[in-house]
Design goal:
By secondary structure, the protein is of the alpha/beta class. The longest helix has 19 residues, at about 15-30. It has helices spanning about 5-10, 15-30, 50-60, 70-75, 115-125, 135-140, 160-170; strands at about 40-45, 60-65, 80-85, 100-105, 125-135, 170-180, 185-190. The chain is about 35% helix and about 25% strand. It has a seven-stranded mixed beta sheet, sandwiched between helices. It is built from seven helices and seven strands. The radius of gyration is 15 Å and the shape is globular.
Length: about 200
């Protein structure tokens, strides 16, 4: 699902980058640690504000950016090694290509978010991590705040249903931090498949 004009304005706003750098990065680092030399995929990258943050604070060596909206990717293309138009439910990458996947405020835009988690797991090497921040259903259904956002109405998640979705996708939850009642930071790991 593409962002509406208000959401695009927020995603491309310098205040959003400030919040990411000084508030969100420390929370995710505390949950999952840094990724020295890692190859990373940023799913739903928007304007690409996270690419330099992933390199600087998480110490990744390579970041590819993916978004459904080609206009958003224009902003991201100067920051990433590769900027790809693509669907988070059908990632155009080989199995086990990445050491980590970042999904920041992306999954709540996707009706079939569980399929997206399965795709993220597929492109992760065993032991690889997903770093994420998500908006929970109670904000999306809020009479005031929810009216400003365009999101699928079906299959929205609470913290509990999201954690179950992570586990159902074959991911192991490493850490979770709730921000108030509306947002959830998480890190999950792809465990090795049993043969």
């Amino acid at each position: 699902m593409r962002l509406n004009i208000l959401e695009k304005t927020w995603v491309l706003n310098p205040v959003r980058r400030w919040a990411a750098e000084y508030f969100e990065v420390p929370k995710l680092l505390s949950l999952g640690g840094s990724l020295p030399g890692a190859r990373v995929l940023d799913v739903g990258c928007g304007g690409g504000i996270w690419t330099p943050l992933i390199k600087r604070y998480f110490q990744a060596a390579h970041v590819d950016s993916l978004d459904l909206d080609s206009t958003m990717l224009r902003s991201a293309s100067s920051r990433a090694e590769a900027s790809i138009v693509g669907d988070a439910c059908n990632l155009p990458f080989a199995d086990e290509r990445y050491d980590a996947v970042f999904s920041l405020q992306t999954l709540h835009h996707i009706e079939d978010w569980e399929s997206s988690l399965c795709e993220m797991k597929r492109v992760l090497r065993p032991g690889g991590k997903i770093y994420g921040l998500e908006t929970l259903a109670n904000l999306l259904r809020h009479p005031f705040w929810g009216s400003w956002m365009t999101h699928p109405e079906d299959n929205r998640f609470s913290e509990e249903s999201f954690v179950l979705g992570l586990r159902g996708s074959g991911l192991q939850l490493e850490g979770v931090k709730r921000l108030g009642k509306w947002f959830l930071f998480f890190v999950a790991t792809r465990v090795a498949d049993k043969n």
